[in-house]
Amino acid sequence: MARAQSSNRTSNKWGHFLGGRSRIGGTRHVPHLFLAATLAVALAGCTGGDAPSPPSAARVNGQVIPIADVTAALERFEATDQFDQLAEQGGPVAARRQYESMYLGQQIKRLVLKARAEELGIDIADEVAARIKETSSAYPSDKEFKKALEDGGYTVAEFTALIEDQVLEEKLRDEVTAEVAAESEPSDKEVAQYYRSHRDSYHQTEVQHILVKDMAEARELATDLEASSPDALEALFAELAGKHSTDTSNADQGGALGWVSPGELVPQFEAAMGELEIGEVSAPVRSDFGLHVILVTGRRQQSLEDVSDEISQQIKEMSVAQAWSEWLQNAYKQADIEVNSRYGKLDPATGQIVTASAEDASGASDSSSE
After folding, report:
1. CA distance 213 to 110
2. Distance between CA atoms of 163 and 33, rounded to whole angstroms?
3. pTM above threshold 0.85
């Protein structure tokens, strides 16, 4: 329905082929920025060794990421609906800058991680092959698998590269954080302190919704529900959800989303839900997924006992994430990285390309010399 991409309590893996899904409409969606990032990973062709070096967008330990690769990737991206959506938000120049920075940052990260994986003797070939086989086997035929990839904006080679990068980072992360993961079990006191500091995060709302596309229909549904008696409201809401809601993941359950926590839902939905009293129906609420009519049916505060295991796991995950972040920053610092100034510069703390000027960025992909 309206599940957000992530929160401090929820980790939804977006992407049609990576196993995540949004619960709005029961369909799977790849947000345009995520698509841009993953295509950036997949479309690289880096040069190394003693071959003549093309004008470079960046070099990592002597391996070249050619300007031509950045330009070609940008041209492919400009031909997509995702570029149009991004350009609508901040203009085409900003969209190009954002994509180029994302692309180059992903390519640099790939080369940094590959070098460190080789040093540690990490081999990902079998795992990559297994994941691709697992994904493709969900389709009736290889032809349908390739068609689904195409519909998602991938070639087989691009999808394979995406899986390679995902597995590589997972393997490296497991390797370098194993000791931290084994030693980061929090005490009961730490768990209780975390709960007290984040008490609002464990306040839940029980909610139902009806998702439609047309504003006139949404208003009519809201009006009918508001005219209902309190005793008949939930039954009527369930009936209308079954007849009208396009969210096939829960329409036949009366649009019920169950108990949800802060940060689990898309912002527009969550903001409207937070203003409702128990038993109150919302006016139509617009999100990227359509128009929602919302009914709040309950609120509760989870106890420390209810969530202690969850908090313990979260504290461990935070320790592992911190260890990985520190290791990754160190890997960037130890690598010999040069970035063409017209794209900006690398921030080793984030692994992102920053501070490119508008003039530099707009001319970067048009230039043929370093």
Report:
1. 41
2. 18
3. no
